[in-house]
Amino acid sequence: MTPSPRGGRPGVALVNLGCRVNRVELDLMASELERAGVALVGEEEASAVVVNTCAVTGEAEAKTRKAVRRAAGLPQGPLVVATGCVANLFSDELSALAPNVVVEREKSRVAARVLEGLGLAAGAGGRAEPAPCDPGAVTPTGRTRPGIKIQDGCDNRCTYCIVWRARGAARSEAPGRVLSEVRAAMARGAHEVVLTGINLGSYRASDGRGRELDLPALLELLLAETGVELVRLSSIEPPDVTARLCSVMAASGGRVAPFLHVCLQSGCDETLRRMARVYRTDLFRRVAETARSHVPDIALSTDLIVGFPGETEEEFGRSLAFCREMRFSWMHVFRYSRRPGTPAATMPGQVPADVSAERGRRARELAREMRLAEATRLVGAEDLVVVQYPGRAVSGGLFDVAVDPSIPVDSLVRVRLASVRDDATLVGEAL
User: Fold this and answer.
1) Which of 20, 169, 357, 385 could tie 393 with a disulfide, CB 3.0–4.6 Å?
2) Taking the alpha carbons of 382, 386, 387, 393 in that order, is the dihedral positive or negative?
C-alpha cells in the first residue's frame, strides 16, 4: 500500500466520467471516505482508485475502459473499484481488465468496498478529521455549488439511450432526506444548491403524512423550510416544465435561479419521432413561451444531437432553425455516437462521420451566436451571482460574470451587468 503524504493516511483517488448525477454521487462517496480518515489524492499517489463510469454513448464507454486500465496499470498497483453505469451493464468485462479491478454496482457500498480492500474496517478511521475542502469549496471534490440528488432512474425509452437499463426505473428521494441534505450543504457554507436527477421532472415522493410531492411542491417545501439562498434545477424534460413549476419559480423572489436546461435533442419532429422522444416541437415551443411569460429574464439552455440516424440535410436545417427561434442561452451539441444495445445503433441511414462533424461545427457556431445575443440582452440588468474563482462568478442564468477579484470566493453578490465581452462573458459591478 502506498501511503499518502497527508499524515500517513491511505490515499484514494476519485475519477468521474459522465453526468451531473455521477458528480453528486462521487461527492457522497468522497464525504464517506473522508469521514473514515482517508485522504483524497491524485491517482499517482493513491492506494485505491474509484472510477465512476458512464455508458451514455459508445465513446463514453470506451473512455471508461481506458480510465480503468490506466488506473490498474499505475506503478503502485492500486486497488481499482469500478462503479456506475458501465459497471451495472458490463461488470464481467470490467472485472476482466486487470486482476486489481473489482466492480461494485451499488454506489452506496463503494466507500465500504474501498475500506475493505485497504484492510480498514468501515469507520475505523473515523477519529481522523476530514481533509479540509479547498478555499471556497463546500464539497470534498472542490465544488462551490453542491448538487443534491433527488431522483434516479428513468421510465422513458429513447432509442439512443441505454441509461434506463443501467439506472433502472424512476425513483425519488424522500422529501425529508432532501431537506436534510440541503441543510447540510448550507452548514458547509453553500449559498446555492443544484437539484439533480436522471429524469428530474418525474420526481414524486410521499412526505410521510399522506401527501405526494411533485417537483414544484418540493421546491415550495425547500423554500419554506430552509434558508437556502439559491436553488437551481438541473436538466429537465419538456413535458415537465409546467405552468405550476414556472409559477413557483416566479414567486420565489429570486431564490429559484432563473434558468432551465430543457432537453430538446432535435428541433425536427421526424427526428424526434425516430428518437422516441415524448414530445414534438409544438410542445417545446409552448414550454418556452410558458417559462418566459412567468419568468421574463429566464435563461433556457438545451442539448442537441446532430447526425442521428436518418437525419437528412433538410431535417438538420429545420432543427437549427427551431433552435434559433428558441433563443437558447447555451446549447450542448453532441454528435450522435452509436450506443451498442440500443435501437438507434441498428437503424438504417447512419450518418457518415464527416457529415455529422460538419453539422456539429455549424450547431456549435449557432450556440455561440445565441449565447452572445442572450448575454447582450442582460446588459443593464441586476442579478445575483455566485463567485466561483477570484474575479469570476456565475449568474442566475449560468452566464460567466467577471467581477472584482477582491470579492471573496463563494460569495453571493448582487451586481449590475454593465457590459458584455465578445466571448459572452458579462462584466458585473457590485451593488
Assistant:
1) 385
2) negative
Nearest to 268 by CA among 333, 201, 313: 313
The rounded distance, in Å, linking the Cα atoms of 419 and 111 is: 47
| Proportion of the chain in helix, strand, coil states, percent, rounded to 5 | 40, 20, 40
- 74 close to 106: Cβ distance less than 8 angstroms: no
Reference 415, options 379, 375, 389; nearest CA is 379
Phi, psi of 31 (to 5 degrees): -60, -45
Give start and end residues of each alpha helix (H) in 301-388. Answer: 313-326, 353-377
Do the Cβ atoms of 72 and 43 come closer than 8 Å?
A: no
Report yes or no: 293 and 266 within 8 Å, Cβ to Cβ: no
Q: How many CA atoms lie within 13 A of 384 on its CB side?
A: 17
Mean pLDDT split into 10-residue runs, the chain, 431 residues: 56 89 88 89 94 86 92 94 92 93 92 91 42 50 77 95 91 95 91 94 91 96 96 96 98 96 98 97 98 96 98 98 98 91 95 97 98 96 92 95 94 95 97 92
Structural domains in the chain, sorted by start = 11-117 (3.40.50.12160), 147-377 (3.80.30.20), 382-430 (2.40.50)
Cell numbers at residue 48, please? 485505491
Q: CA 230, CA 252: separation in Å to the nearest integer?
A: 10
Cα maximum dimension of the chain: 64
> Alpha-carbon distance 146 to 181, whole Å?
10
For residue 416, CA distances in Å to 253, 384, 420, 430 come to: 17, 9, 12, 6
What's the rounded Cα separation, in Å, for the pair 397 and 98?
44
Identify the CA nearest to 150 among candidates 231, 224, 85, 226. 231
Question: In Å, how far from its chain's centre is CA 95?
Answer: 27
C-alpha cell at position 250: 416566479
* Interatomic CA distance for residues 184 and 117, integer angstroms: 29
The C-alpha cell of 44 is what? Answer: 499517482
Pairwise CA distance, residues 66 & 61, whole Å: 9
CA separation, residue 120 to residues 47, 124, 147, 215, 422 (Å):
12, 6, 29, 40, 53
